[in-house]
Every structure is written in structure tokens, then in C-alpha cells.
Amino acid sequence: VQLQASGGGLVQAGGSVRLSCAASGRTFSSVFMGWFRQAPGKEREFVAATTWSGGSTYYADSVKGRFTISRDYAKKMVYLQMNSLKPEDTAVYYCAANLGSSYYYTDKYDYWGQGTQVTVSS
């Protein structure tokens, strides 16, 4: 599975950004598609996840109600719509694919994209 994330940039607090993740290769083998983020000096953390099959969604408490994850199976795309952005959302955002275990833990993901920077100014 190959993943390519895009869509990051500089945005003001309260603004919105939409991230995209293009998946290719043996995508049918992955169950969960997730977004993670890593801020400078911090560990990578879970943001949101969804499933290819039924579209179930999962969110970190810090983004619930502001971020929305979605997927288009036919196009092999996963999106992260981020609204009401805060300076603390500043991080490099990564999409990842999981072959079927827990959606939450970083080390359960098998494939990672290259990351895209999101910077939220106050």
C-alpha cells in the first residue's frame, strides 16, 4: 500500500483545511485508514480513523466535533476536513493504513504517507 498525503498549509485560527490521502497498491488489504499528527517535540498522536468497508469513524477527543474523516473507496481517497482550527492543531499530519488491528495505536499501522504540514496562526 502506498499513501500520498496533500492539502496542508498555513491557515488562521478558526479557519478550515481539507487534507487528502491517495492510496494505491493493495488497498483492499487494509481495514482502517487513519490520520495522525506530530507536533514539534511531541509524539505522534491519533487524530481520526475510518474503515474502507462500512465507513465507521473514530476521533480523538481533541478534534471531535471539529474534524471529519471520510473516504471514497472507488477513488481510493481518504479525507480529513478540519474546521475551527486552533494553534494547537499545528503539526505534520500523516495518513496511514492498518491491516486490521486497533485503529488507535500508532504502532498498529503498517503503512504511512509522507506527511503534510498544517500551521495554524493565532
Please tell me about this protein's structure.
The structure is a single chain. By secondary structure, the protein is mainly beta. The chain contains no helices and 11 strands. The strands form 2 sheets. Strands 2, 4, 5, 6, 9, 10 and 11 form a 7-stranded mixed sheet that branches. A 4-stranded antiparallel sheet has the order 1-3-8-7, with no helix packed on it. The radius of gyration is 13 Å and the shape is globular.
Shape: globular
What's the rounded overall pLDDT mean?
Answer: 93
Return the string of H and E elements: EEEEEEEEEEE
Give the percentage of residues in beta strands. Answer: over 45%
Total helices: the number is 0
Distance between the termini: 37 Å
Number of strands: 11
The SS-based structural class is mainly beta
Radius of gyration: 13 Å
Task: Explain briefly what this protein structure is.
The chain is mostly beta strands. Helix content is 0%, strand content 51%.
Give the SSE layout.
Elements: E1 2-6, E2 9-12, E3 17-24, E4 32-38, E5 45-51, E6 57-59, E7 67-72, E8 77-82, E9 91-98, E10 111-112, E11 116-121
Parallel strand pairs: 2-11
Antiparallel strand pairs: 1-3, 3-8, 4-5, 4-9, 5-6, 7-8, 9-10, 9-11
